[in-house]
Design a protein that fits this description.
The protein is 18% helix and 32% strand. By secondary structure, the chain is α+β, with helices and mostly antiparallel strands.
């Protein structure tokens, strides 16, 4: 290919012929690039972006969306394709951004730097793109590395700005996806949108299902879609009842009526088929339903309004999900906790339901009453998802009240798992935790986690994830989202490990060169810290480290922190072994060896040994001298004791004589009528009092220490509850109960409240952008920050600033 003054010239080496792709405006082409999809990208004189395929005769313009926030402008043409296939680009003197496959436009994305107080880098002057597609920016005084992460989740466009709330995979591999506005998309096994499921009138007057090429609502608010083992499709809606489509395409709609065996509520959040082929309905208002055929071929709905007498009468009406667990136990996720019931029983009146609820005083209870979903994994573990996090059931007996739960095991370096919307599982046993803005891939066997993000930063929904044998599908804004769990993102297969810094126990730099192969430890500094890193920038959050010393048979995992601390190393020569995973999370053969030479301290040397012997001799001699002195002292004490007794006897005799003389004088004076003043009263016990003690409020002191700690860490998006508890010298469980008692909310809610309070001050008293404020108070996602802020204050950040903004004079 060649960039020419009138377009793109292409030479076909198979036919030895030239062809021309012209630009719509006839501009001169200055730069050419080709992506992995064989698309041709061109920058034209004047800054226009063009896109073409080798077979096309004319390129088309790619528009750039308007940005309401400051942008980063590149002074040189910039184009790169990251490992997930996203194209990032900027013509000369144009905004830097990425090409959205959904909108077909370039979305400007400012590069935010912590060195600039989380404001946008104004311009890119010089850059370098390495073999991992990392972007290195050279500034006047610094070097910045821009990594593009693992944006491996993509969306099939279905309906703009609408949520997909229902998904199901049919036996033939096709997928049905329902939206909150009632659109049901039909996708073929390759994930291509082929049409829309709609209703039409049949020739016999019945309502039939058909596939339409234009989007038409099937019904209002589709919340659940299921094709059962008999070929019947069940569609649950929010407010419009239940629909069934039989194998011949006939549609039947079921509403709540006066019939006691009709559905008890028109809001159906899930339709579920158990291992025995029975259909269960999770209704948001009338509890759980079992579906049975009646004598006419229709359906009867068994619930607490008719035969299900054991269902709790005092709550648990709003059921989100139904899940079958080990031994046929059914789990019902509700807004008041969850219920368990023996699913083997067909006798509805005899069914007994057991409750598990939230308790403020029991840390082994539910984190919050509002249960989003329960997942029974292939290995028999029961995962419970709430907006506060994910727990597992810690008991084997499931049919009893208030089951004990515990948090899932996560690496110490992981951020808190909260705001959970749904759970999914793949055949390899990995659990996928769907949150509002990302998906956490969790491996229960290794307790390792990895965060997957969306290519277009779309939000995810509460739709139950489904697996089609290759991809995991979940609900998202604009359409169903999918990713391939086993897909590897290119990166460094075997990254090199380098030592970045060595610190002595005093905290000072050891003075060694970068990446030393040998470290000498002085005898008076046995505490040593070694910091190291694997040179793989594709996804640093997925890197894991381990170490061992010579003599160790097992590796010791360090998580994602490349730092190792030694306390009281023994003198002698040691060998330290370091290893890591690559950014795909796989342990690789990159073991690094470092020699540690630990010098003996003075007391461990021969000189110190000699000093110790001298000290022992001196102490022994001193002991002998002390013994002799004590023996002489005992003899002298005996002589002194005899002298003391003699003196006491003389003193006693003299005292008796004095007493008799005194008595004679007193008798003489009494006869003479003399009197004396009465003696002064002896002091009483009540005359003595202790000073008032100083009473310290331990709770107040604890909260002051906590707030002082939070004031310095409020902007840390990775701040964990464990760190808060450690700051006030408490365990996580005690800390959770203490905060809940003092402020009436969980630690995570309390932290979010403090972040939002700090955000209100920054919005009212500064002119920082809302994205800057979001990062400054510890939110990694400005969109999620806006949602939380509006929920807290009832206003968007813009509305709050308009109401509270200082005038220019005040500022």
């Amino acid at each position: 290919m060649a960039a020419t003054s009138s377009g793109i010239a292409i030479y076909d080496i198979t036919t030895n012929r030239w062809s021309m792709i012209t630009s719509p405006g006839g501009e001169e082409i200055t730069d050419l690039y080709v992506d992995t999809k064989s698309r041709i990208w061109a920058f034209a004189e004047g800054g226009n972006i063009l896109l073409a395929s080798p077979e096309s005769a004319m390129a088309r313009y790619i528009d750039t969306e308007e940005s309401m926030t400051p942008v980063t402008v590149s002074r040189r043409p910039l184009w790169l394709e990251d490992p997930t296939g996203t194209v990032w680009l900027a013509p000369r003197n144009r905004p830097f951004g990425y090409f959205s496959e959904f909108s077909g436009k370039v979305k400007p994305l400012p590069l935010v730097s912590p060195q600039l107080n989380y404001s946008a880098i104004p311009s890119i002057e010089r850059y370098f793109i390495d073999n991992q597609s990392n972007l290195w920016l050279s500034g006047a005084h610094d070097l910045t590395c821009v990594t593009f992460g693992r944006r491996s989740i993509n969306t099939i466009p279905l309906e703009r700005n609408e949520e997909v709330r229902a998904l199901t995979v049919n036996d033939d591999g096709t997928l049905l996806a329902g939206t909150a506005t009632g659109i049901i998309g039909w996708l073929d096994p390759d994930g291509k949108l082929k049409g829309y499921l709609t209703q039409t009138s049949g020739s016999d007057g019945s309502t039939k299902a058909q596939i339409s090429q234009s989007p038409q609502p099937f019904a209002y608010r589709i919340y659940s879609v299921l094709t059962d083992s008999k070929g019947t499709t069940w569609i649950g809606t929010k407010g419009n009842g239940l629909y069934t489509i039989d194998p011949k395409g006939k549609i039947t709609n079921y509403h709540r009526t006066s019939d006691p065996y009709s559905i008890g509520c028109d809001s159906i959040y899930q339709v579920m088929e158990d291992s025995r082929g029975r259909i269960w309905l999770a209704t948001y208002g009338a509890g759980v339903h079992m579906v049975r055929r009646d004598s006419t071929g229709g359906y009867r709905f068994i619930h607490r309004g008719n035969d299900m007498n054991g269902y709790p009468a005092d709550g648990f009406n709003r059921v989100r999900r139904v899940e079958e667990g080990p031994g046929g136990v059914m789990f019902l996720s509700t807004t008041e906790g969850f219920l368990t019931v023996d699913g083997h029983s067909d006798d509805a009146p005899s069914m007994r339901f057991f409750r598990t609820t939230h308790s403020e005083t029991d840390p082994s209870s539910l984190l919050t009453p509002n249960v989003m979903q329960i997942l029974s994994s292939k290995k028999g573990r029961i995962y419970v998802a709430t907006m506060e996090g994910v727990q597992v059931v810690a008991e084997k007996t499931l049919l009893k009240d208030n089951l004990k739960l515990k948090p899932i095991a996560m690496p110490a370096t992981s951020s808190c798992i909260n705001n959970v919307l749904a759970l999914g599982e793949t055949p390899d046993g990995r659990i996928y935790i769907v949150r509002e803005s990302d998906i956490v891939a969790y491996n229960p066997s290794t307790a390792a986690d990895r965060t997957l993000s969306h290519t277009d930063n779309a939000e995810f929904t509460e739709a139950l994830p489904v697996y089609d044998g290759q991809n995991l599908w979940t609900g998202a804004l604009n359409g169903p989202a999918f990713f391939t769990p086993d897909k590897k993102i290119p990166g460094v297969e075997i990254p090199k490990i380098i030592v970045t810094r060595v610190l002595h126990g005093t905290g000072t730099d050891a003075g060694t060169e970068l990446n030393p192969s040998e470290i000498t430890v002085a005898g008076n500094e046995r505490h040593l810290t070694v910091e190291f890193a694997a040179l793989d920038y594709a996804d640093t959050g997925s890197l894991r480290y381990a170490y061992r010393l010579d003599g160790d048979t097992l590796w010791h995992n360090l998580g994602s922190e490349g730092k190792l601390k030694f306390n009281r190393l023994s003198p002698g020569n040691h060998t330290l072994y370091l290893r890591s995973t690559n950014s795909s999370g796989h342990w690789v053969n990159n073991t690094r060896q470092i020699s540690l030479k630990v010098e003996p301290s003075f007391w461990e040397s021969w000189r110190g040994t000699g000093v110790i012997l001298l000290i022992i001799l001196a102490v022994t001699g001193a002991a002998v001298i002390v013994y002799l002195q004590r023996r002489d002292n005992v003899r002298m004490s005996e002589i002194n004791e005899q002298q003391r007794r003699t003196l006491e006897e003389i003193t006693r005799v003299m005292h008796e004589q004095a007493v008799r003389a005194q008595a004679a004088r007193e008798a003489e004076e009494a006869r003479a009528g003399n009197t004396q003043e009465p003696p002064a009263p002896a002091p009483q016990a009540s005359d003595y009092r202790l000073e008032s003690p100083t009473i310290i409020d331990e709770d107040q002191e604890m909260m002051q220490r906590l707030l002082k700690f939070l004031d310095t860490r409020i902007g840390d998006e990775n701040l964990k509850i464990e760190e808060l508890a450690e700051a006030v010298n408490m365990g996580r469980t005690v800390f959770y109960g203490k905060i809940k008692t003092l402020v009436g909310m969980s630690p995570s809610d309390f932290l979010r409240r403090l972040r939002l309070q700090r955000a209100q001050k920054l919005i009212a008293n500064s002119r920082m952008s809302f994205s800057q404020i979001a990062f400054a108070v510890g939110f990694s996602d400005p969109k999620y920050f806006t949602k939380c802020f509006k929920k807290e204050t009832g206003m968007t950040p813009s509305e709050f600033r308009s109401k509270n903004q200082l005038s220019d004079n005040d500022a």
